[in-house]
Predict the 3D structure of the following.
Amino acid sequence: MSVLFASSQRNDMRPLAFQGIFATNCYEQLVALLEQHRDFLARQGMPNAPDFLAEPMHDSSGTIDWYARGETMPVPLASLAPEDQARIQETLAQYARALTALLDQRQGQGQQALGQEQSMAAGLLREALQHPGDNDIYVVGNAPLLINWGFAAGTQGAVPQDIMRLGAAAPIKPAPAPAAAPAAPIPAAAPVSPPPPAAPVAAAPALFPGCLSWLLPLLLLLLLLWLVLAALGFAPSPLPASCFREDVSRQSEELRSQSLADEEARLLRQLEERAELCKPAAPPEDLHAEREPVIPEPEPVKEPEKKPEPAVEQPFFGAAPVIPEEPKPEPKPVPRPRSRMEIPKDAAKKNDLTFLEGCWRSRTDLFNTRGEPIEGEYCFNKKGQGRRFVYERNGQRCSGAARARFNGNQLVIEAPEAACPRGGVYVPQSVNCTGTGASTECRGREHSRRSNTWKATFTRK
């Protein structure tokens, strides 16, 4: 289960990238890395490490919704008492030291031992621990929660804040070493006779004399040939394309182009503002030119104060007519929790998906591959875009994208694969809802070889 607690604008910030990959687009990989080293981070003073980064959901309009695990609503750090803020700052410093220990340990293992994906995940984690300002830290329970991670402030030349710098102010005190026991006296060694002189050994001739002088240029020539063939499309590229398995979608490219266009407009606006501040240089003053005499202005003549005239009372002609007040529009009904989903009568005609805003619990009779029952959850915004969550009995939460739309008078909810932090995915599925009001009924179907179908009941969370 998750709760929406904050939103931000992507155009107001500058995304940070590692090897051309934005850190904010790799939330699942970062959570998997923290989940893999959960025990190590817990020993270093960072329990529940995967919950430190809030889950982002990007919108095509540039809005980023931030979700937190659980049902508790996070609060900003600045709204707490000073003593509580100091306690959370100490916890953040402990988190920074634990993450520094993890990254130092992985750096000591080397890139060849970790592999390309693990090395890239560590680099993305360093970028994800940076954020624009102090208002990005929230508190849920007694643990800090970070939003706007992987971004810097949109101001030109602004330096982002780094969680890793909090741990440098208070280094970990080393534990005192135990007192060493007194060493036993070393007995005197008996004199050893010098060894006989070794017989001279003839040096073996080189196996390939002079091969190193042409082997290195040959390797460089082969590497250059590989890069040229990769650029022409005849050979695979040696550089990673993305942290995702699938290709970059068209929507991601549109978001990237929109971000670049907004950045260009912002830079042009700053250039125009700075150009307005530049004043033209004044022409040099001619000292020999004739000057007009400066005549002082006459002092203003003070007018005598006028005495206030006595107020004239208006005659009373009776009470003014009472004008009735215009009726105020009735407020929109607030959705009740645990209420069943009902499609409004005119929603399909107007293509209105605002009634789906929020999170819905999907009750089904589905089981996972281990025979354990699972629970589904869908969260949408006003445009019908959101995410799908699958909760298992062991506490694991798998997530993926979700989208709702009208197909005639039928509401269609489509969800691709849902990836799990510990490995494995749930197959794509779709839900079709018909009827309006209390007669709304939904049926789900899995897009797999079995094509399992079920009756889906949606209740508001």
